[in-house]
Design a protein that fits this description.
alpha/beta, Aspartate Aminotransferase, domain 1, 3 domains, seven-stranded mixed sheet, 18 helices, binds pyridoxal-5'-phosphate
Length: 405
Amino acid sequence: MVTRRKLIKTLSVLPIAGSLIGPHLLSANSIAETASIAGTRNFFKELGLRTFINAAGTYTSMTGSLMHKEVTSAITYGATEYVNLDELHDKVGERIAMLLDCEYATVSSGAFGAMTIGLAGVICGMDNEKVAQLPDTTGLKDEVIVQEGHDIGYTHALLNTGAKIVSVKGRKEMEKAIGKKTAMMWFLNANTDNAEIEQEEFIEIAKKHGIPTFIDCAADVPPVENLFKFTKMGFDLVAFSGGKGIRGPQSAGLLLGNKEFITAARLHTPPRGTTIGRGMKVNKEEVLGMLVALELYLERDHEKEWKMWEDQINLISNSALSVNGVKTEIYVPKYANHVPSLRIEWDQDLVKITPDDLRKELRDGHPSIETVGSKENVGMTTWMMDPGQERIVANRLKEILEANS
Ligand SMILES: *Cc1c(COP(=O)(O)O)cnc(C)c1O
């Protein structure tokens, strides 16, 4: 930043101040200041952090996704003015509901935050005493029915309200578990294939017993249609991550669906203080960023983007296959992270390096490349890369494989 004092000092050493204001003024500052003025200060380098090419995907630990400049512009814009937080949420919620053709919406603190406030809204309705009572659920409906195969760690977002999980397997157990204490039924789209009951039957059972339903779709765009599909299918509440496929702020998300439940969910969020959701604040900057990221995502040419991902994956695959003993598989996960993906394996008698060591070499190289995988293979996607980076990844991969052949 050019402080006023520095500015005056700079001006005083310039021979003919008036005529030199402009680019010359910058040249009188230190390089660090100039870089900061131009917005090129390398914060990560200053902090001693390495950045990397993301060939892995939308991983929370790898900071999710990158935002387009329209999104960061909206965030920067948001930081320049005051507005009423509730009014902002009202307006943006209405706008998102219109864009996604659903009854109502709110920007939440990630898909995880959406789950907590969504369930809290279902449990407490518009009763402020109940809102203040959570996470003590005495006297309230506080059971959430979850299929066993869906109960991976994310159900903790539901436990945050004070509710309990009732784990069931199959239709019979599910119907038996529904009772006076049942608050909600929760479905994990990513694990659709890990449990007996699929989306439509799940909704049918819930409706039969008058129980609200929630579907976690955190990592389920693409396809873009999913943003519309599950509210139309009849789920009362639907959650998406902001910082995965939509490429919005990583700590934002979307809660879509039933207006009554979402209005009630909002009672648990700031500015209200005596709530379980006070720490799940979404600031005005990220509310705007989320809206703009969604607008951009809806406008994108999804077919063209898909074709690009396929080409990129093919390029990397072919590069790996040019090394003797290497096998690859290109596949698209059916649910969640539904993008062209690559699995690379090799005969370790011919290519003498373990997948873990190959991943380490990719990470330690210049530029650093992050991948996923197991003891048996290395996994990659290209959807979180900048176009062009696939060439660097393809070359580097081949180089390492060849060096060990
Ligand atoms: C990422 C993820 C979440 C958490 O989403 P955030 O937006 O990071 O809060 C929840 N559920 C599933 C299935 C996820 O993949």
